[in-house]
């Protein structure tokens, strides 16, 4: 099926723009491949260290160097309710892989930060940088070079992007993402937000607030709003990196564990030894990235992916920018209304049809590419299925034709909105992104005087002192990655929402970011260049009229040109963001980070290597496979 002309145009533009770096990436991938098991390239001493602690039968298989070894890279910890279930996954995986004659090895853990625990706290200034720290930790795990396939256990915000960025730097290794599933529904996200707004007005006690939060976040599993974590799940389904429909199955259930077992055994199958070799670097290509952006728009996904997806693409040699997001947003309809884009949560979304329903609708609408590689082979249509238990095995069934709840999920023929959730706004303040799917139409344009703040705390002090009961645009400055690590400013949402509810026209403009769970207040975020990179946001003064217009895609200070030209860049003392809570360890990150529109990344685009010199000397069983087209079953980017 032909895709929509705009989808095709954006795809071809990305392919053209990415050609040098994508070809360099594929050359690196070729050079890393070996004939036989990857551990065949190790010397005996290395290998003995690699299997020393294993039980006899595993050790024998590892020593024989015939059966694949499957890496487990896990973000388990007790801090994220979403990742706590991963505690018992390694045992399920090892038993499942043994059943099919191979071996699974816990290759390494990666750090994972809960943005809910750190929201509004100093720790949030490490949050964005934790993504590439996770990517580096993934590389450290895989650098043992023992592995012929890998399972990535992660769900939340920066963790899936970090794991995937790391995995793509080992693009020759087949990989499958293994989710843990969402928390069961507690009090609704709307009720949770209402308690917060009452507390911000002084109408609820701290005990009432804590009780409300505890009823929202009440158990193991991912928080049930459609923030960055659950946006990640949609993207993994859309990119064919999950088994179909694995995203939103509750942790601790038989189906959840059966899916983990099935993913483990499928990883063996797509290893070179399994006969259906499918390296992850050939799954993530220009078309799968375009598909991911389309699914983000169709579901009102997290604004954080206007950075994370760009960084993921960059890791695979693919260059994406906010024009690509913006042009796709204009043709991809909004098909799901999940909080903050509506009242439903992800459990309702799943019951209505879930992410695989969205995949089918986008394919049927010609708004996604079907001809892509996935962990199941060639073709995305195989992922438009729903998993069920048949005994202790997973079987997949066709999706129902209709949505289970039209208030939550719709077919492309009857969308909530003809266009998607994220738009580019640009003007004399720079380039920024706005999530419009969660903002009422009457707030898509805000023109009001600026009030500048250099920290979240300064804003909250002014709010609590009653100084903000007016129409205004909050310009929160010095929040970019170079300044203080680009924290989420989600903690300002209840105050801004109260002011909006009181009838004031309010908006936020910042070089910082918001949570994927942020919603109703119009916010032009990720303003690039950031102030510390000379961004014009630093020229704004209190009282300047700021116009934020999501319909026209503009972001301007309406200041006479001569006055604007005479302005000096504001300065701020950021030292308190550079010391304490470990922030001093990330000084190098602040200095080396790329712009938000380049993914706020800490790694270069792949560049051509002089010759496809193998990364390591082969041995008899680890003979280096020459990188050549016929070795691959996969068409290169055209
Ligand atoms: O991008 C995201 O989705 C957020 O980082 C999310 O993971 C974060 O935890 C929110 O702050 C939680 O939402 P509440 O703060 O509303 O509980
Ligand atoms: S969704 Fe956010 S708050 Fe919930 S567990 Fe994940 S990181 Fe923490």
Secondary structure blueprint with pairings:
Layout: H1 5-32, H2 44-51, H3 56-64, E1 69-74, H4 89-99, E2 103-109, H5 115-118, H6 127-142, E3 149-153, H7 159-168, E4 175-178, H8 189-200, H9 206-216, H10 228-238, H11 254-269, H12 286-299, H13 305-315, H14 322-329, H15 346-352, H16 354-364, E5 373-374, E6 377-378, E7 385-390, E8 393-398, E9 422-427, E10 430-435, E11 445-453, H17 456-464, E12 472-476, H18 481-484, H19 493-501, E13 506-510, E14 523-528, E15 545-549, E16 554-557, H20 561-566, H21 587-592
Parallel strand pairs: 1-2, 1-3, 3-4, 11-12, 12-13, 13-14
Antiparallel strand pairs: 5-6, 7-8, 9-10, 10-14, 11-15, 15-16
Bound molecules: 6-phosphogluconic acid and iron/sulfur cluster.
Residues 115-116, 119, 157, 227-229, 302, 304, 488, 490, 515-517 line the site of 6-phosphogluconic acid.
Catalytic activity: 6-phospho-D-gluconate = 2-dehydro-3-deoxy-6-phospho-D-gluconate + H2O
Family: Belongs to the IlvD/Edd family.
Domain Dihydroxy-acid/6-phosphogluconate dehydratase C-terminal: 408-600
